[in-house]
Amino acid sequence: MAEKRTTGEWQALDRAHHMHPFTDSKTLAARGTRVITRAEGVYVYDNEGNKILDGMAGLWCVAVGYGRRELVDAATRQLLDLPYYNSFFQTSTPTQIELAQKLSELTPPGLKHFFFANSGSEANDTIIRLARLYWSLMGKPNKRTFIGRTWGYHGSTVAASSLGGMPAMHTQDGKNLPEFAHISHPHWYLRGGDLSREEFGIQAARELETKILELGPENVAAFIGEPVQGAGGVIDPPMTYWPEIQRICRKYDVLLVADEVICGFGRLGHWFGSEMYDIKPDFMPMAKGLSSGYLPIAASAIHERIFEVINDKAGMVHHGYTYSGHPAACAVALANIELIKKEEIIERVRHDTAPYFRKAMEQVTNGHPIVGELRGVGLLAGFQLVKDKAKRTVFAPEQEVGIRCREFATQNNLIMRPLGQSTVVLSPPLVISHSEIDELADKVKRSLDATAKLFGFA
Ligand code: PMP
């Protein structure tokens, strides 16, 4: 247990020793960090006792909400029985085996084998290595390049950040790893022009064909995409997009990777985004909602036709993490899946909460002076902030409109996140109730109104 300290004391220690992810440390030091001390349901509490509505479910992960005894008990029991053992020495632990089996029931057909990791980034790194191994075993060792998308996010390791298409991450590194290429994101509002959503979906998908032909199909290992791009600003593609992507992948013998780290485990009102968009992936990384974030765990699902080749021909696969399939994390994931099923959380999201959430957000954004488009599926929302609706012009990055909006949200005790191009997003816990959605909508409205006023609208 951490000691009791004043917020000022925590901030001083934080400033002195703690380097934060995705943070400008100078700005943070000037403002002082917010210290979150506990949480319950859809609310987190800071050291000052403020009750804050968590519109982001942590980092898109706390699907079943905070304070769920079932998950805590599962971890405690497992930690007492067997806190750790590895799966390298021709050994397994029961929760690893059960979780792999359970995932084979829940994931799309053909995904029968699961490799465990601790984070989405590691799950994607695993897939890069396994896909290249597969092609090499198939006698096509040149098929190594991965094609991702601009504003795609697949993690922060060296390989995963090259796989993703976050402009600032690439700029910071100076140079991307070789054998990673990108096509544009299917952002109809900003890129669709006069095309209908459906027409644009096909056009955006065809960029993949052009890129494969440019690189040479004999050099391309796989295409990766999130069913709905999350960190890029909640970009939900037109329904024509994924079928066309899938057709192109099959035509050129390019593997298809659906990154379900955000979309998986009910976020879109289905177990997986692949279900909703009818994607039949060869690999599928998952994390976040797998354990609702109570303990870190991720998995890479592997299609049986790929596993069989590796199993037949590879011999020892030189890949693994000390905490691959950590027994306690697996126990929490199993308890989390059981809870999602028992409480029918996904059905409730699909038929009840998501439509209610959508309607509430539409009421907030319809006719709003700076919201050009409301995007999203299930319990995901992206608010596209624009300075000129007729021309669909976004605010310049240096205007930091999303950050200003987040600051107003913070004043309203709401966690909302600026992401992508001039966008703020929401991804609340899947257990959010109607009255909590009403409160969320009211806080979002106040934050958007204040932002509009600041930028001279309204
Ligand atoms: N893939 C996607 C789609 C993600 O959204 C994220 C994290 N936001 C990752 C991968 C990386 O996961 P992690 O932060 O656990 O490494």
TrEMBL record:
It comes from the Bacteria. Keywords: Aminotransferase, Pyridoxal phosphate, Transferase. Its cofactor is pyridoxal 5'-phosphate. Coiled coil: none annotated. The keyword Transferase applies. GO terms for molecular function: transaminase activity. Belongs to the class-III pyridoxal-phosphate-dependent aminotransferase family. This is Aspartate aminotransferase family protein.
